[in-house]
Amino acid sequence: MHVVVIGCGIVGAAIAYELSQIKGLQVTVIDQKPPAQASTGAALGVLMGIISHKLKGKAWRIRQTSIATYEEWIPKLEAVSGRKIPFNRQGILSLCLAEDDLTGWENLAATRLAQGWQLEVWDKSQLQQACPQINIEKFVGAVYSPQDRQLDPITLTLALVDAAIVNGVSFKFGVEVLGINLIPSFSGDSEGEKIEIETSNAKITADKTIIAAGLGSTPLTEQLQQKVDIRPVLGQAIHFHVGHALGNPEFQPALTGNDVHIVPCGAGIVPTTDYWVGATVEFPNKVGNPLPPDAELLETVKQQAISYCPELAQGTITRTWLGLRPRPENRPAPIIEKLPGFSNILLATGHYRNGVLLAPATAIAIREMIVSN
Ligand SMILES: Cc1cc2nc3c(=O)[nH]c(=O)nc-3n(C[C@H](O)[C@H](O)[C@H](O)COP(=O)(O)OP(=O)(O)OC[C@H]3O[C@@H](n4cnc5c(N)ncnc54)[C@H](O)[C@@H]3O)c2cc1C
Fold it and tell me: Is there an atom of ligand 1 within 6 Å of 13 CB?
């Protein structure tokens, strides 16, 4: 069976790696750009799984699966690709403001314990002791999630591509998919139908195709008369060079407070000297086109981060960047299912703010759909 994956962001690359482990399956990945250029190239790689407020059902299951899978994937991918993947094993620390519901966090910690995970609710003095860089006046405490992680999304995507290549997957970069057509089977049975993928290069025939094209999924599905409406939500972020670790160099979790993240760079690979700060959340206009990046919103994020860790103000901003998150319109993220009306076209798209977190569970779900058919 030949499976074509359209898109090589974190989601397409994770699917390619997962499918590359199925014996006898031929897998081709097509992307109009090099890997990890679109939304994935802008992501902060914060994996808010255990600390998320999802309690049950699919939303919790895919988070739990992803967090567990990354622990297996990272060492394997490092070994196969020879790349060192920045993977912060010191957890995520969520800073609690006076208005935050600490009882709610205590309840979540109890639920997580029953589910086999850890979550600690810290008071002010515990927070101050563990993280002296924090402006303690602002916070009543914190929630520490030792099993959540942060990673570098670009290095991870490149490592997934390397590992998939080793397992025989073929990648076509710089090739745009222009259209998807069904070739009817002689029996008229839709299960036997082949797919013809029209690209800027050549036509490719597949038995199944997976649309993992982020924002590019909308025009591809529209052309099949089954429009999946995915809209861009812009995010801006900042790279700070501080020159040394803020607080205790031995304890550098990803920090988050009121939706602003402060992320140590190069975790586990190099001593911390730099931090990413982000990201803004900027919705598109009514027809779904992104508005220009809002400098004021970025400044607010920056000032918030400095109010959490005042020493950041002494750092130098070496880069700011932006990206577009693929958000499904009028339905929850992500979309992992068959394209309605098509037995051999699968969707793995619309991951909005959690594509890096949910890539492993998405890849596993797609693998199950391919194997069970
Ligand atoms: C500022 C910012 C911060 C973020 N932080 C986090 C975070 O901390 N944690 C987290 O989990 N997520 C985060 N995200 C969200 C995350 O980046 C996305 O959910 C994720 O990258 C989506 O991955 P993807 O592979 O589906 O899409 P993309 O990375 O957008 O990849 C889609 C690919 O499809 C290709 N493509 C599209 N159309 C075609 C076509 N017709 N032919 C060929 N190729 C095509 C594109 O070139 C692209 O490479 C953040 C996003 C932003 C912008």
Answer: no
